[in-house]
Amino acid sequence: MAVDSSNSSTIGGDSVRDAKEKTHEAVDPAINHQRLSESAPRSPLKETEANIFPETEDTAEADLEKGGIVPPKPVAPGGFNPADFPDGGLEAWLVVAGAFCCLFVSFGWINCIGIFETYYVETLLSQYSSSTVAWIPSCEVCMMFIGGPIFGFIFDSYGPRYLLLGGTFFHVFGLMMTSLSTQYYQLILAQGICSAIGASAVFYPAMSCVSTWFFKNRAAAFGVMASGSSLGGVIFPIMIQRLITRLGFPWAMRIAAFLILGLLIIANLTVKSRLPHKPKKFHFMAFIRPFSEPAFTLMCAGSFLFVFGLFLPFNFITLQAQSMGMSTHLSSYLIPILNAASIFGRIFPGIAGDRWGRYNVLLLTSIFSFIIILALWLPSKSNAPVIVFAVLYGFSSGAWISTSPAIIAQISPIREIGIRNGSMFAIIAISALFGSPIGGALIARDNGGYLYMQIFAGVMIAVGCVFYIGSRYTQAGFALKKI
């Protein structure tokens, strides 16, 4: 009986101890996470993910992205758990609406640079060659991209508020100064640098904020956001040309600046990050470290080469069409047509990317881009092929805007999205700066013809696609699967 009593006491003590341990585990999410990690099935791509997502919360995010398990909410505090992403709702879509306005006034303004290239060559800067004039829109695109690392760091540390306020001031102020400019250097400083820095400061926080609200539907949200740049690329060229004809260049720029100010007021009221932001020490290696990951490095290399050719049709399609006999009136609508098609190219490929894989959609649309440049735009000798090319290229090139940032978000920890997007776009800034002047120099080399420039655009996009294939290979090999 004594033995039985002792056993009974021991069993009772064990029960109490077990109950206490279970209670402690319920309170301490770290224990749950450790056991979950030990028992959870491994993702088939775990070897790659281990390099890209070294931290707990980022591994959980990667597993969900590629079809793995979804950890319970308490495991990943601080908003890192994929289940914490709203992926919709009024607040999230208001952020997308504000980001839409940011893209309208930043990338949408950049998308109409071909209008200014044509106007400056024909009137204000007629004494300069097209290659020299091309430095103005090239500086604009370069400054739009090159601020990425700094603005990404500021976003990760302080959130979007200061960036949006500063960007609003510099973008509007730069365009107001452009309205007063008559000299080449003045246009470089006002439009090519000041306004573009402001546009960059509103572009990056908008893109990064949307990433914090969406996970499963991230590419679709990026597509809706990026369609703002296409709509801006439709409205601004028509608006600027009509206003120049009726009111002159100075008032055309001022009215555009007032429109941009109104849209940025909306953006300042709606764009916000879901995550808390804490000031961080600046570490230069934070921008270099992502390049140790093959997927990220190959993606950046592909985008660097891709952008050498990406903007050449935007810059020169109007002049090329006029050189083969298209009327000035009809050719002035080519860029709006191209950007109108790009609206669909930014929304539908984004939705398709969420369903069938963002890498897959990016590859298909990028390959299609260089094919139509070399097979349709290059041999075109009449109006119809050029108009068809504008529609098709607008659609295919628009997909790059919505899918490439979504892919960077897909292969990056959520806390580093600002820095990583900034690093990629800073690399792109170099090719954006030199792409148009190289195109202009090739036109001069061809004695005013556009053959060399068109071949250059198509080949650079094709080589960029090779690097995209390499980046995808690091994630899933050549397997035909969603990635």
Automatic annotation (TrEMBL):
<comment type="similarity">
    <text>Belongs to the major facilitator superfamily. Monocarboxylate porter (TC 2.A.1.13) family.</text>
</comment>
<feature type="region of interest" description="Disordered">
    <location>
        <begin position="1"/>
        <end position="49"/>
    </location>
</feature>
<feature type="transmembrane region" description="Helical">
    <location>
        <begin position="295"/>
        <end position="318"/>
    </location>
</feature>
<feature type="compositionally biased region" description="Basic and acidic residues">
    <location>
        <begin position="15"/>
        <end position="27"/>
    </location>
</feature>
<feature type="transmembrane region" description="Helical">
    <location>
        <begin position="92"/>
        <end position="121"/>
    </location>
</feature>
<feature type="transmembrane region" description="Helical">
    <location>
        <begin position="251"/>
        <end position="271"/>
    </location>
</feature>
<feature type="transmembrane region" description="Helical">
    <location>
        <begin position="187"/>
        <end position="207"/>
    </location>
</feature>
<feature type="transmembrane region" description="Helical">
    <location>
        <begin position="330"/>
        <end position="348"/>
    </location>
</feature>
<dbReference type="InterPro" id="IPR036259">
    <property type="entry name" value="MFS_trans_sf"/>
</dbReference>
<feature type="transmembrane region" description="Helical">
    <location>
        <begin position="384"/>
        <end position="403"/>
    </location>
</feature>
<protein>
    <recommendedName>
        <fullName>Major facilitator superfamily (MFS) profile domain-containing protein</fullName>
    </recommendedName>
</protein>
<keyword id="KW-0813">Transport</keyword>
<feature type="transmembrane region" description="Helical">
    <location>
        <begin position="450"/>
        <end position="470"/>
    </location>
</feature>
<dbReference type="InterPro" id="IPR050327">
    <property type="entry name" value="Proton-linked_MCT"/>
</dbReference>
<dbReference type="Pfam" id="PF07690">
    <property type="entry name" value="MFS_1"/>
</dbReference>
<dbReference type="InterPro" id="IPR011701">
    <property type="entry name" value="MFS"/>
</dbReference>
<feature type="compositionally biased region" description="Polar residues">
    <location>
        <begin position="1"/>
        <end position="12"/>
    </location>
</feature>
<feature type="transmembrane region" description="Helical">
    <location>
        <begin position="133"/>
        <end position="155"/>
    </location>
</feature>
<dbReference type="GO" id="GO:0022857">
    <property type="term" value="F:transmembrane transporter activity"/>
</dbReference>
<feature type="transmembrane region" description="Helical">
    <location>
        <begin position="219"/>
        <end position="239"/>
    </location>
</feature>
<feature type="domain" description="Major facilitator superfamily (MFS) profile">
    <location>
        <begin position="295"/>
        <end position="483"/>
    </location>
</feature>
<feature type="transmembrane region" description="Helical">
    <location>
        <begin position="424"/>
        <end position="444"/>
    </location>
</feature>
<dbReference type="GO" id="GO:0016020">
    <property type="term" value="C:membrane"/>
</dbReference>
<keyword id="KW-0812">Transmembrane</keyword>
<dbReference type="InterPro" id="IPR020846">
    <property type="entry name" value="MFS_dom"/>
</dbReference>
<keyword id="KW-1133">Transmembrane helix</keyword>
<feature type="transmembrane region" description="Helical">
    <location>
        <begin position="360"/>
        <end position="378"/>
    </location>
</feature>
<keyword id="KW-0472">Membrane</keyword>
<feature type="transmembrane region" description="Helical">
    <location>
        <begin position="162"/>
        <end position="181"/>
    </location>
</feature>
